[in-house]
Amino acid sequence: MKAGGMWVIKCKAAVAWEVDKPLSIEEVEVAPPKAHEVRVKIVATGICGTDDHVLKGSIPNIDYPFIPGHEGAGIVESIGEGVTCVKPGDKVIPLCLPQCGECSFCLNPDTNCCLKTHLHESQNLMPDKTSRFTCKGKAIHHFLWISTFSEYTVMPDSAIARIDDDAPLDKVCLFGCGFSTGYGAAINTAKVKPGSTCAIFGLGGVGLSVVVGCKSAGASRIIGIDINKDKFTKARELGATECINPQDFKKPIQEVLLEMTGHGVDYSFEVVGHTDTMVAALVSCHMGSGTCVLVGTPPLGSQLSFDPLLLFTGRTWKGCLIGGWKTKDSIPKLVSGYMEKKFNPDVLITHTLPFDKINEGFELLQSGKSIHTVLVF
């Protein structure tokens, strides 16, 4: 079947037909790219906590059925008219946060929140409001424009970045979201200073990436916090100086941290996505100069209630989207840094599974048995 001078490709993909149900491995048809679009053969894709949130219905404005996945790496199969940033055969990382390079946010050096992002404009369909996916005669929606849980996928050229030709795709797929988000939260958003004290709430793949960022920035004390003690060995391996379990104490964890540090940590990071933990992380940072960074995705429709005096005395509360990176510019540089052995997120990958075992990968995540699972086609 031919369209627009290029073939429609049949391949396997994981389709979410309805909320809170296991993904279904299906044969889908992937249409060729239109103008300013790119079709990519995904080689490897990570399972990120955000994928779990979206399947449970806690991410806004998602249309079913859709193909999830937003942490992939692959090879350009074909390009549409007007695409100049990549060519067939290039190794690439799809960008779950686009960088159009033209909107007021992209032109502002102080933000990476492109106005094409899903937070501003639905990415359930391509920019022309049509889908490139079909399954069983039915149009299937995209996810964040990139849908990496499909062997072939199509995205706008604002949502793709070319990377080193030698990069191992089954490792650098983490740079599509998890590692970049956590590492950037420390480096870009918090701007952790040498000799400082940091606390990280949640030691999953993103939280452990925050640990890597804090260590790279020269923090002298890095306190990891999680209710799963199995995460502590990996956290210490990556740079945590101490690890504590809130369930081991009879008092709130923020009181424990204040006692451990005197007046609170210099930087705290909430990487769980719970409102009570967000407030605890704010209270835990230094009352006069502490910075608290929100990294975990908050539940849909949630509201925060806190004492404004917590900010009145000098604390700063900041949000963080994909580590503050302008993705198209920065993700290739991060991959180059990895190739130069400046950091090693490989240790975050605890499981590598064939793509067909995707639901097993989600079970590993939900049970706390995995840090990061990578699926290989």
Structure description:
The chain is an alpha/beta fold and 377 residues long. 23% of the residues lie in helices and 24% in strands. The chain has 10 helices and 19 strands. It has helices at 49-55, 169-172, 178-190, 205-216, 232-238, 253-261, 275-284, 309-312, 327-339, 358-366, and strands at residues 2-3, 6-7, 9-15, 24-30, 37-47, 72-79, 91-94, 133-135, 138-140, 152-156, 160-162, 197-201, 221-225, 242-244, 267-270, 291-294, 316-319, 349-354, 372-376. The strands form 4 sheets. Strands 5, 6, 7, 10, 11, 18 and 19 form a 7-stranded mixed sheet that branches. Strands 14-13-12-15-16-17 form a 6-stranded parallel sheet, with helices on both faces. A 4-stranded antiparallel sheet has the order 3-4-8-9, with no helix packed on it. Helix 5 (232-238) links the parallel strand 13 and strand 14 (242-244). It is globular. Residues 1-5 have low confidence and may be disordered.
Listing every helix as H and every strand as E from the N terminus to the C terminus, the arrangement reads EEEEEHEEEEEEHHEHEHEHEHEHEHEHE
So how many helices? 10
| Percentage of residues assigned to helices | 10-25%
Shape: globular
Strand content: 15-25%
* Average pLDDT taken over every residue: 95
Structural class: alpha/beta
Number of strands: 19
Note the main sheet. 7 strands, mixed
Low-pLDDT segments: 1-5
N- and C-termini, Cα separation: 23 Å
* Oligomeric state of the chains in view: single chain
What is the alpha-carbon Rg in Å? 20 Å
